[in-house]
């Protein structure tokens, strides 16, 4: 048994940390939020150059073949700095579906993700089926796609979508060009300042060559991908929790009231200790979950659910405590700390909230 | 990263399981499985069975007759024995006073005391807390005055676990009150048969007699029973408490309790309770992984410090939380509890069997967040050493 990161993994973390600290501080993030694209094309090119966009893909697809441990490192660090670049939607969601599929054109598409030249999103969610992704209403009949997909992350930047739908009575994943006839969309902003879209498909023409997978294969691809994405955003939550307590400890040491730093007060100390403990427990559950996913074990879904349920509940609690201990600063839009709370709300809401995963865990 | 134990560790685990299946004294096992109390003799039998196997010194170095087990082996020992429902090993001799003796005691003391601890010929108890000194232990007042070749001890100790069974007590006493309160404390080993020692039971809210008050009136203790130097007792006391930390998470025992709880809850069709049980299971998994992370750190040459306070805090919260869920599962039958007064004209409770045991555990386990440095003290430790505030 050895639960240490390898040297390469430590280096990867340092590399990402360095980027976040020097090129993606909170002011930079604010600029990105206010920009037209809702992501930073320069940062995205840098991610491509560093190989971060190729990390999890198999070597046949032109990737590095890194696993959930490396992805978790990246997301943990992104979480600490609240990076809003569309990594999850492109690399984890769309990318993993393609990489693990038998789709003929997958290598080219993955190459375009790795180089950062094209954005692809996975359209998995529908308004009527919260957290139940395997029985969509969107369908293909007579080679025409009809239906509405919601919460499509980074939808407005995507040139292509992978749409989950029912075709010939079974779940299918089809590739759709966002400029095709019959495709329309509205964009929204998420609580954590990402961009997402609602897409409507009206008689969009689907060829056989657009079908990525059907039946059990489609089901597996979607289930595995959502599980991996759940692990990733949970790792992001762990990063947020670590930052919440670090920043709060820092702030209470500097903030003086009653002629002393407020960190002298035991009631605040114990609350910060609770934040520390919950973040350590979250890290422990992350270790367990990522190793189970890495080993492709039978229990991998269960352990990802355990992690997600924990960070859903205690991540929000940590962020709420961070806001409370920052006083009025905690609720100021221009301060970073309140944005962790928004991030934790977003993470809890995605791919099943704490209650949902508690139920999945005990099944 | 590799979460799997080595082949050697797994073979070791099999050896533990074999002992538990074949050599764990049956009369002890039966009582533990039924949630009945153990007598002094039961405890002696259990510990002597471990001595016979050579496992009594489970956390000792080989040079003093211990096993020299690695951190992984210690972890597996705690976990397997916990999961099998074994009584926790009495810590006072083997885990508390012994490391102090081999680290700070003289050769004569090592020869005199360590073998009897390994063979469980002496039952030790701990003379730390006093009526006026709980979490603020260094404020203790029990006094020892040197007169010729003896110390004369006067004062009292409290919450002394199983003092009624003990042959020896290790005592923190004040030998000097002129300086800071942490200075002037000394560490004495005292034979419980010495004239002037009186043990009085304290009955706890579960109705049990586990802890005691111990009174010392002009108790003569030979100077050769002083460990280390006079006035250095506080250093030894802190050393001892640090030694107590491992295994305190009680992961194995909590896993066993969880499995029993699941069986009880499965019959209730109560989705609220199901949810709480799921949360508990996740908490136990998080605790186990936290312990394994610290273990891995230790085995890679690290020195996990105050982080191990997490194990105390969370381990005890989980132990208590489990007992609370058992009480919830008992429903209306949580009303019925004999306590110190007995069941009345019924010699047995009505209602499910688990109900009475649940209440006893619920009441008894309140102690876990109080002893071994209360959980609030643990949070102070984390504040100081991890958060740096």
Structural features, described:
The complex is a heterodimer of chains A (363) and B (389). Chain A folds into three domains: 7-115, Orthogonal Bundle (Butyryl-Coa Dehydrogenase, subunit A, domain 1), CATH 1.10.540.10; 120-215, Butyryl-CoA Dehydrogenase, subunit A, domain 2; 217-362, Butyryl-CoA Dehydrogenase, subunit A, domain 3 (Up-down Bundle), CATH 1.20.140.10. Helix content of chain A is 53%, strand content 16%. Chain A contains eleven helices and ten strands. In chain A, strands 1, 2, 3, 4, 5, 6, 7 and 8 form an eight-stranded mixed sheet that branches. In chain A, strands 9-10 form a two-stranded antiparallel ribbon. In chain A, a hairpin with a 2-residue loop joins strand 4 and strand 5. The longest helix of chain A has 40 residues, at 215-254. Chain B has helices at 7-22, 26-34, 40-53, 71-83, 91-104, 107-118, 233-243, 251-266, 271-299, 309-330, 353-364, 375-387, and strands spanning 124-127, 143-147, 150-157, 168-174, 185-191, 197-203, 209-222, 226-227. In chain B, helix 4 (71-83) packs parallel to helix 8, helix 8 runs antiparallel to helix 9 and helix 10 (309-330) runs antiparallel to helix 12. The longest helix of chain B is centred in the C-terminal third of the chain and has 29 residues, at 271-299. Chain B is globular. At the A-B interface, helix 7, helix 8, helix 9 and helix 11 of A face helix 9, helix 10 and helix 12 of B.
Helix content of chain B: 40-55%
Distance separating the two termini of chain A: 29 Å
Could you give me the name of the CATH homologous superfamily of the largest domain in chain B?
Butyryl-CoA Dehydrogenase, subunit A, domain 3
Based on Cα principal axes, name the global outline of chain B. Answer: globular
Strand content of chain A: 15-25%
Gyration radius of chain A, rounded: 21 Å
Q: Which outline of chain A best applies?
A: globular
**CATH class group of the largest domain in chain A:** Mainly Alpha
